[in-house]
Amino acid sequence: MNPWIFVGVFLLVAGALPAFALLFAKYLGPRRPAPIKSETYECGVETHGPTWVQLKAQYYVYALVFVVFDVELVFLFPWAIVYARLPLYVALEGALFLLILAGGLVYVWRKGALEWA
């Protein structure tokens, strides 16, 4: 038997389950449209002025840098827990990972992406 058949079945099931859930909710879910449900909702307060406000791209870069460093920090926790039992080359790889992180931080810092405007 071809081993790629399992991959194909997995992809079919992975696509069919969310599609089934969405179709199930669309056709069998309650539909009670009301004008108040169609209004713009912003923190429970009615909006004043234009509701479409363009933000600076710098805020997105700031958030993206935070997420990247936060996710990479999650990779360090398991490494730190078993640090005493690791061989020397694994400790050196961890140090290299930290150097790459520090290099990324210096790069972002020099580009001014961490300056809050």
Sequence-ordered SSE layout with sheet pairings:
Elements: H1 4-28, H2 57-81, H3 88-111
Key terms for this structure?
63% helix; 117 residues; single chain
Give a count of the beta strands, DSSP E runs of length 2 or more.
0
Helix count equals: 3
Distance between the termini: 60 Å
* Class based on secondary structure composition and strand pairing: mainly alpha
How many whole angstroms does the radius of gyration measure? 24 Å
Order of helices and strands: HHH
Oligomeric category: single chain
Number of domains: 1
Return the average pLDDT rounded to an integer.
84
Biggest β-sheet: count, sense, barrel? none
Fold-level CATH name = Methane Monooxygenase Hydroxylase, Chain G, domain 1
Please describe what this structure looks like:
With 117 residues, the chain is an all-alpha fold. The protein has a single domain, classed as Methane Monooxygenase Hydroxylase, Chain G, domain 1 (Up-down Bundle). 63% of the residues lie in helices and 0% in strands. The protein has helices at residues 4-28, 57-81, 88-111. The longest helix is centred in the N-terminal third of the chain and has 25 residues, at 4-28. The model has no long low-confidence stretch (mean pLDDT 84).
